[in-house]
Amino acid sequence: MTMSVATERVFNFSAGPAILPEAVLREAQEAIWNIDGSGIGIMEHSHRGKVFDKVIDEAVADCRELAGISDDYAVLFLQGGASHQFFMIPANYLPEGATADYLNTGKWSQGAIKEAKRYGKVHLSASSEDANFNFIPSGAEVKPSVSPAYTHFTSNNTIFGTQFRTEPAKGGDSFLICDASSDIFSRSIDVSKYGLIYAGAQKNLGPSGTTLVIIRKDLLERTARDLPTMLTYKTHAENDSRYNTPPTFGIYLMGRVFKWIRREGGLAAIAAHNEAKAKIIYDAIDASEFWNGTARADSRSLMNICFRAPSEDLESKFIKEAAAAGMDGLKGHRSAGGMRASVYNAFPKAGCEALAEFMREFERKNG
Amino acid sequence: MTMSVATERVFNFSAGPAILPEAVLREAQEAIWNIDGSGIGIMEHSHRGKVFDKVIDEAVADCRELAGISDDYAVLFLQGGASHQFFMIPANYLPEGATADYLNTGKWSQGAIKEAKRYGKVHLSASSEDANFNFIPSGAEVKPSVSPAYTHFTSNNTIFGTQFRTEPAKGGDSFLICDASSDIFSRSIDVSKYGLIYAGAQKNLGPSGTTLVIIRKDLLERTARDLPTMLTYKTHAENDSRYNTPPTFGIYLMGRVFKWIRREGGLAAIAAHNEAKAKIIYDAIDASEFWNGTARADSRSLMNICFRAPSEDLESKFIKEAAAAGMDGLKGHRSAGGMRASVYNAFPKAGCEALAEFMREFERKNG
Question: CA A252 to CA A46: how far, in whole Å?
Fold first, then answer.
């Protein structure tokens, strides 16, 4: 049997759930009908059967290979997205009365901070809130507490288009926790600097509903309080993410994305590609008096490029005309306004070139 | 472009993740590349965009239509499976010092009971544990407490192959909570008898990673303790399951399954089909001295049919030969042994006939 599939795909600038590699989508189309000649689709296989054993084992191995993750760390696939980690982290690692350091660089940092306060004290070691989160604090702007339980930061801020260049300073010998939901595996990462890295899949890794958690194994043993079985990391680590039925299709797809990144040359090659892609759009902004980037130049994100036109009317017009020209998802977040071009790993360079050209043309007509 | 897809599918008796309707899988193959002519696949659409608005709105509407769910109830799509509900329910509805009634009818009931004990007292209003969970308690066997916070039961027990015929007795004016993971929408259900119904998707509704929760709206307002934002049902109800990024593909697929059930004639028609399917296999067991059903006749599940052969050697041989004949997933759960044929909504009658015939043939050769 053959299947007809519409091939017309547009340039999808969505901030998340976001574009996936087309090669992976093609693989998934086959696998949901019949994976590995098993006569059963990937969603229909037992999570304890041999076919899924291979899927999850390879996903873990490819993840380790990609980011150079040592055996000192466990690689877990959980559910609930970053929002679920916002409370699971302090529930496990912030004892009552103790202090955790948080860098407040946007809406997702704020979400994490709100939940942490239920469990202990929060010290804001830095904040860019007064500048509408348009920069990443660094140097003397970061003031760690003396001995925090841990230090938490959001490596990339989707809404305001800012991104940490490197890890922030931390107090004492506290371990670092990173919400890397929106830039995970978009560049090289030295996992050994972290206690815990978490990322909802739906930007760079796969479909929403699966969360990648990379956790240092010694942390599995020290939790701050007695918690439900499902809320301790140890439960999931001891059972290789299969204490309960995991999101099998999400793990399958994430595994295929890991293999795709490896085929693309790994994290260093992806990083170079992402830099080149973002530069095309930032150059269009910087060469113009019409367009204005909202993030401070030294803090610009390579994943989410936020910019404004001279008026909101022109912004609405631009977004509408861009959509008609096959460029979807350019409307900025409601709390930031303007435009946002999200150009995650799977977003093609041709889409960045098309947008830059469209911006120049729009400026000529409306500037 | 055309895509070649292997069409050879086997009879998949997996207990879960389990077989899905082939018509739905065909729809999903197209939708993950380009849904509704949008030029973007279902997994790549923003959860706040118009395409996904339609997906989730229709899923809720079709769910309400299927089960006759009134506006007194909210229909939610959560994450974490039934295991996540095991603690989320008592965290919300079992005040410290108060008692909840649980019917202990198998491994999943025990999981729910274990988590409830963290929050308050548990009264076992009935248990079939002494009989290795081979029956469903009823009549005088059910002894509710006077005024429990709620009464919890597991409507179908996948491991031991038993199923409630109707709702159990409950104490006082407590509300009923049901883990319906493995028989949801396999028959008609009077939702108005319940306070909360939950079901992991991976048996009758879709891929693992999405949990359907049907909750009476007055319960949204009364929670027993202050909880993290993500752990209160109200958070999810107020945001139409989009407080955070939901598992968009899982919701899409569940919605397509709801439409498929409607096309099949709705819950009454599905129930008649399921009765006829299970009867084919139970008749094969009852007509034989060789095969033995493990569940008491009055408690037999229409979803999971558990049976034994005269020896474990013969069981291994049967499972192996059945797999070679295109019948996969017949091995019983490790805690029950023997064979288990899971024949959820999407499992075809032809597969039941094939199994019954294969059982008769195996008996002739080995009996």
Answer: 13
List A108, A183, A260, A277, catalytic entry = A108
Quote the tokens at residue A87. 């409370």
Q: Are residue A287 and residue A202 in the same domain, yes or no?
A: no
Give yes or no: A203 in active site. yes
Per-residue pLDDT, A367? 86
Q: Where are the alpha helices (DSSP H) in chain A?
A: 22-31, 50-67, 81-93, 107-116, 217-221, 233-238, 248-263, 266-286, 312-324, 349-366
CB contact under 8 A, B115 and A3: no
Cβ-Cβ contacts under 8 Å between A and B: the total is: 248
A349 touches B: beta carbon within 8 Å? no
pLDDT tens readout for residues A320-358: 999 999 999 999 998 889 999 999 999 999 999 999 999
Question: How, if at all, do strands A292-293 and A304-308 pair?
Answer: antiparallel
CATH assignment of the domain containing B237: 3.40.640.10
User: Which one of A49, A83, A91 has the shortest CB-CB distance to B244?
Assistant: A83
ipTM here:
0.97
Pairing assessment for the beta strands B211-216 and B196-200 based on DSSP bridges: antiparallel
Per DSSP, the residues of B290-319 read S-EE-S-GGGB-SSEEEEE-SSHHHHHHHH
User: What's the rounded Cα separation, in Å, for the pair A234 and A239?
Assistant: 8
Containing structural domain, residue A111: 27-263
Residue A69 and residue A198 share a domain:
yes
Backbone angles phi, psi at B192, to 5 degrees: -65, -15
Global pTM value: 0.97
Q: Which residue has tokens 């709801």?
A: B258
User: Which of A218, A244, A263 is a domain's end point?
Assistant: A263
